[in-house]
Write a structure and sequence with these properties.
Number of domains: 1
Number of strands: 2
CATH topology: Rossmann fold
Helix content: 40-55%
Largest sheet: 2 strands, parallel
Number of helices: 5
Radius of gyration: 13 Å
Shape: globular
Strand order of the largest sheet: 1-2
CATH superfamily: Response regulator
Strand content: 5-15%
Distance between the termini: 21 Å
Order of helices and strands: HHEHHEH
C-alpha cells in the first residue's frame, strides 16, 4: 500500500509522471522491465526491493537512479502517518535531486 499511496498523492503533481508496481507476484501491477525502462528515476520502499531490481534487471540497476526510502510495510492505504512519511522523504529526495 506504500507505493499505491505514493502514486495517489503524487499523480496530479506536475513535477512528476508516476507509476507504481510491486515486486511480489501478487501485486496489482507487477514490476516489469518495461516499467523500469520507462522511468527516469526509481523509488523503492525497502532495500529488498532494490535488491530485487539488481537480481532480476541488472542492466537497469546499473544505469538508472534507484533511491530507497526505507519505509517498512506497516501502513494501510492512505494512512495519514504514511502520507506524512512519504511526503517528507519524497520531497527530500526531490530537493536533493536524487531523482
Amino acid at each position: 500500500m506504500r507505493s499505491a499511496t505514493a502514486h495517489k498523492i503524487y499523480e496530479a503533481d506536475e513535477r512528476f509522471e508516476v507509476r507504481s508496481a510491486g515486486t511480489d507476484s501478487t501485486a496489482n501491477v507487477v514490476l516489469t522491465e518495461d516499467l523500469l525502462q520507462w522511468a527516469d528515476g526509481i523509488l523503492v520502499m525497502e532495500k529488498h526491493h532494490r535488491n530485487h531490481i539488481r537480481r532480476h534487471f541488472p542492466d537497469i540497476y546499473n544505469t538508472k537512479s534507484i533511491v530507497c526510502l526505507y519505509i517498512p510495510d506497516d501502513y494501510d492505504y492512505m494512512q495519514e502517518e504514511l502520507i506524512e512519511i512519504l511526503k517528507d522523504k519524497i520531497e527530500d529526495v526531490y530537493r536533493r535531486r536524487l531523482i
